Structures are given as C-alpha cells and as structure tokens.
Amino acid sequence: MARPQIAAAPKHPPAPVGRDDDPLADVVTWDSELPALGLRNRFGRESWIVQARIGGRSTRRTLGAASTLTQEAARQAAAAVLDTLRAERAEAAISPDTTMAEFAERWLADCAGQWKPSTLVGHRYGIKGHILPSLGETPVAALTAEDVAGWFAALPCAPGGRNRVLAVLSGMMRHAELLGLRAPGSNPCAGMRRKKSGFTATVLRAKDYVRLGRALDAREGQAPLLVALIRFLALTGCRRGEAATLRWDWIDGPRAALPDAKAGPRSIWLGTPALDLLASLPRTGDLVFGQDGTPVSTPRLDKLWREIRTAIRMPGLRLHDLRHSFATTAVSAGEPLRTVAGLLGHSDLAITEGYTHLADDTLRKAAASVGKHLNDALTRKGRQPATDVRAGKSAEAAKPPASQPAIPPQLLREYKRSRLLIPAFCEKHGLDPKLFWKAVKADLALNQKEPGQ
Q1: Mutual orientation of helices 321-332 and 337-344 as an angle, nearest 10°?
Q2: Which residue stretches belong to region Disordered (predicted)?
Q3: What is residue 12's predicted lDDT score, i.e. its pLDDT?
Q4: Is 50 within 8 Å of 9 (Cβ atoms)?
Q5: CA 130/CA 153 separation, integer angstroms
Q6: DSSP category for residue 403
Q7: Contact indicator for 203, 325 with CB cutoff of 8 Å
Q8: How is residue 139 annotated by DSSP?
C-alpha cells in the first residue's frame, strides 16, 4: 500500500500565529525522525500532533499533551494514526466496478469548488435528467465511444442542450482518468462531433460600424445612458450582463475587475476610447450604467436596439453580435488568438490554453488597439465621404508623392487576399497607411473602369 505524502519538516520555525502581543502564541517543532510528528506549543501549552497529506488533502490530528506522552510514545502513536489514515484512504478508493450513477456524486463533490453555484445546479440537472437514465448502470471503466454516440443521438433536447450535457459527460470522464478509473486519453467523448445549434453570428464590417455610429448619435439625446452602454459593448467586447452590472468601484485604471463573470472572476480591459466614454458618464450610484443604483431597463434597451438595427438595415443583429464583431476585428488586426481570448474572458481551453500567463501589459495594449480602431469607425473619424474617382483620374490617384516610394502591385494583390485591415497590413509590410489607402482606392476604380472600356 502506498505511503501517504508526509508534510516535510520546515527548515525554519513557521510564522507565529495568534495574538499580536505574543510572538510565540503557536509554534510547531517537527520531529527529526518522523517528520509528520510535531511538538506544538500554543500559548505555553505543549501537545503532540501528527500531520500528513493524503489524497491531496492535509490532515492534522492531536495525539495528546506532552506532559502525558513521551517523545517515543508520541512516535508510536503517530505511526499508528498514519496507518489508520492510509487504511481509511484505501477504503475510500473507487472500485473498478463503480457505475456512472455512483461516480456522478463523487465528481460533483470533488469539482464543485471549480464552478459557480448556477453551473453546479445545471450540471446536476443534466446528470439527473439526461445522463443517468440511460447510462447510470454502466460501469465508468466500461463506457465506450459507441455507447456515448448512441446516447447522444437519442437525447430529447435542443442542440444547445445536447452540447451542454455532452460537455458534462466529458468532464466526468476526464475526472475518471485523473482518479485512475479510466486509462489516460480514453475519454469516450473525445472527437465527438457536437450537433450545431443552427445559430450564425452576424459580424459587423467597417461600413456597418459607420452606420451603427450614426444611428447611436441620432438617439443619444433620447437615451444617453443606453447609447453609452451599447458603445461600451462595441468598444470592449464584453457581455451584456457584464456591462449592465458593472460597478464604479470595480474599475481600476485600464481594467474593470469583475468578481463573478460567466466563467468566474475576470477583467475587462479598457482602451482609451472606453476610458473616455466612462469619464463622460455621470455617477449617480454604484452602477456604471444605472441611475440611483437601479440598472438600466432591459425592455427599454431591447426597444432601442430594435430601432437601431432597423435603422442600419440589419434586422437580425443581436447585441451579442457586437462581441463577435469585436473578436473578429481583433483577429483581423493581427492580435494573437490567446490575446483575444484574454480580452473576451473565454474559458474554452481549446482557445485559451496558457492565457492566464499573459502579461497584463499585453492585454492592455491589445484593448487600446482594438478599441481605437472601432472608435474610429463609430465616430466621425471613420465617416469621411467616399471619393468619387472619375475616369482619367484613377491613374493620378495611384501615383504617390515624389518623396514616397510606389506601392508594388503584388502588395495590392496580397492585400485583396488578406484578412488583415489596412492598419495591420501596412504595419506588417512597413507601408504608409494613407499612401496605401490611396493606391487601393485607385486600383479599385481602375478595375471598375476596365470592363466598360
């Protein structure tokens, strides 16, 4: 039987614990022969304790007063306690024949601390209503990919619900691997193609942002706080609920620290446009987008958004699509996927593996870059009238000033195939954005002219 991991004896006495006026209120001196055994002096009273880490948990037991136990007797008692703890752990070990129904409770108990309360409730509902009725009697170790495929195909719920329940089952199988109940890499849910929900996100293009900005300007007088909230969603990519519950005391310089977002605590990184927007808002209560402590009216926000999307001729556009558009803009601007995931607060490990190690400065700069680009589109900076390039002037427009080098034709062709926006493309190739934009417009005009010649 494997021995438990014993807490190593500290090289130096532990930091004092207890009253401020008594630096020796609680001190433990560890035994040199049996490191798990310690002589504890608490407010002048000495007692023997045993402490060990078993199954990932630290356990401490008191053996008795030092006045009644010699050191040798304490060692023998500590050894007996350790044997008992090992036996208890062996009895608590999962049997290879553990069924899905038995393992479900173990999984929920072991992992509950990782989830929000609402997530735990959802997992329990999915297990009870959709996993255990069909798979409850199946041994965890015997569950196969074929079993999962048949179960998944017969799930009586919408595509989105199927995906969530499949994620729960996959999480259970990963935990079974960690506990040794299944072989590593044997998750029967791996590679399972989830059914699509049929939803397709709408992504705003540059001209769409221009129309959105005009529509917001036109309604700023009638609903300034609601318009400000919509602008904030566009400039930060945060979720609607995150913005609606944002408090002033959560904002710390260039970021807003959310204590409880969809996937737990996270930060919303604020570029200069978002900070300027916040600075322009009145403070009438704790909530940023509220009045006298009352959140913005959801029906009023929905009504305003319906008006706006009708005005910009995008009747199917959702507020959440501003988040998708923020992400697409960031990726198109050349920001790494992990940086974008950090900005959005994604919890999907397939995207955000290692994102928690990103430096704060990386996210701050990315937020400023993407926010500035979107702000230019939403404001008058991005609403210059289109240049009317007439026949005979296209060649003139394509010519750069004498002091500037010409734009190679191959770069124009590469730009047409690229997903990068002009600022990012020019930075990549060391070009002057204004000069390059003129060349692009001239090239477009020339191509439009040629078919009619």
Answers
A1: 150
A2: 1-23, 377-410
A3: 37
A4: no
A5: 12
A6: T
A7: yes
A8: B
- 347-353 CB contacts, 8 Å cutoff, 24+ apart: 347/262, 347/263, 347/264
| Residue 50 clears pLDDT 80, i.e. is over it | yes
Query: Count of CB atoms within 10 A of residue 210's CB?
Result: 20
| CA pair distance 184, 174, nearest whole angstrom | 8
Q: What phi and psi values does residue 261 have, to the nearest 5 degrees?
A: -95, -170
Third-level CATH fold of 100-178: DNA polymerase; domain 1 (1.10.150)
Could you read off the pLDDT of 316-330 as tens digits, one per residue?
999 999 988 888 787
Distance separating the N- and C-terminal Cα atoms of the chain: 89
For residues 81 and 50, is the Cβ–Cβ distance under 8 A?
Answer: yes
Within a 13 Å sphere around the CA of 237, how many CA atoms are in the beta-carbon half? Answer: 32
More confident residue, 246 or 358: 246
Q: Residue 300: is its pLDDT beyond 60?
A: yes
Mean pLDDT along residues 41-47: 85
DSSP 76-120: HHHHHHHHHHHHHHHHHSPPTT-BHHHHHHHHHHHHGGGS-HHHH
- Residue closest to 328 by CA, chosen among 249, 237, 439, 214: 237
Q: For the segment 102-155, what is each residue's pLDDT rounded down to a tens digit?
A: 999 889 887 876 777 778 888 999 999 999 999 999 999 999 999 999 999 899
pLDDT given at position 23? 44
Task: For residue 28, give the H/E element and its range.
Answer: strand 26-30
Give yes or no for a contact between 144 and 106, defined as CB atoms under 8 angstroms apart: no
- Looking at the domain 206-381, which fold is it? hpI Integrase; Chain A (1.10.443)
pTM here is 0.47
Residue 330 in tokens: 């960031």
Domain locations in the chain? 5-92, 100-178, 206-381, 394-452
Nearest alpha-carbon partner for 62 in 81, 43, 44, 88? 81
Strand blocks (E) in 305-439: none
Q: How many separate helices (H) and strands (E) can be counted in the chain?
A: 19, 10
Q: Please report how many Cα atoms fall inside a 13 Å half-sphere around the Cα of residue 38, on the Cβ side.
A: 23
223: CB partners within 8 A, 6+ apart? 300, 304
Architecture of domain 5-92: 2-Layer Sandwich (3.30)
Q: What is the DSSP string of 226-289?
A: HHHHHHHHHHH---HHHHHT-BGGGEETTEEEEEEETTEEEEEE--HHHHHHHHTS---SSBTT
